[in-house]
Write a structure and sequence with these properties.
Strand order of the largest sheet: 1-2-8-7
Radius of gyration: 32 Å
Shape: elongated
CATH topology of the domain at 61-164: Alpha-Beta Plaits
Distance between the termini: 24 Å
Order of helices and strands: EEEHEEHEHEHE
Number of helices: 4
Mean pLDDT: 82
Structural class: alpha+beta
């Protein structure tokens, strides 16, 4: 039996559906046994489309990563000097109004330091200790003054600063609504251009969403803090929250 199948194709956005419609025919067996049933499968045409929604949101929190680096002739001296300066830094954070729960040690390292000269074995110069912490600041008006305070207390490394949202759900939901509206509009446009009717959406998948910013270098801010008594200027800007979706629409017959 010959099976006829119909597929509607448009620039790669239309695909064959996994849903099938079947028809059955009975054919007698030559030996008079039970009839043999043969099914004809017809693929349902569909539209496979994607869209996205994107919103801007003002950050309401910041994260700063910084460290104290010390060097000494012995490992014990390097660690002791580092601990003294880090204790001063922690006190400065408390005076700046930063809660203990918002301060987290992110790295502690002790390493030997060598001098290298050509054709000579390495010569031990001393030891280097590095203690890094990450601080969450929930009041953006305190970002610059906090950076200044820790530098004054002994911080000599600022690894970066990033801004984020305490609760991104509202921005994500707004982006979802925009994405669905864009997807619906695109599906209607294709249906009109093809002069067909949509039978409904078969499935919908989502990707994207809010992702915290990676820390950005803060070298310029550190230089300003060292040279001026004024608070280090920090601009929070805006964050982008994007939701990507993909939907499959069936085409009515």
């Amino acid at each position: 039996m010959k099976t006829l199948s119909r597929a509607l194709v448009l620039g790669g956005v239309m695909m064959a559906s996994g849903l099938m419609t079947t028809t059955a025919m009975a054919q007698s067996q030559p030996n008079g046994g039970a009839p043999l049933t043969i099914q004809a499968v017809t693929e349902r045409p569909s539209l496979n489309l994607s869209a996205y929604g994107e919103v801007k949101a003002a950050p309401d929190m910041a994260t700063i990563s910084f460290g104290v680096q010390t060097e000494a002739a012995t490992a014990q001296e390097a660690m002791r000097d580092n601990a003294t300066r880090m204790t001063q830094v922690m006190a400065a954070l408390r005076r700046a109004g930063i809660a203990e729960r918002d301060v987290q040690t992110s790295g502690l390292n002790l390493s030997a330091q060598y001098d290298y000269q050509q054709n000579e074995p390495p010569r031990l110069r001393g030891y280097q200790a590095v203690n890094r912490v990450t601080v969450t600041i929930n009041d953006l008006t305190k970002v610059g003054t906090t950076a200044d305070a820790v530098v004054a207390a002994g911080v000599n490394q600022i690894d970066g600063i990033s801004f984020g949202l305490k609760d991104p759900s509202a921005a994500e939901d707004q982006a979802r609504r925009q994405a669905v509206q864009a997807l619906q509009a695109k599906a209607q446009l294709y249906a009109q251009a093809l002069n067909v009717q949509l039978a409904g959406i078969r499935n919908l998948s989502e990707g994207g969403g809010y992702a915290p910013q990676p820390p950005q270098p803060m070298f310029a801010a550190r230089a300003v803090a060292m040279e001026n008594r004024d608070s280090t200027p920090v601009a929070a800007g805006e964050l982008t929250v994007r939701i990507d979706i993909t939907g499959v629409y069936d085409i009515a017959r």
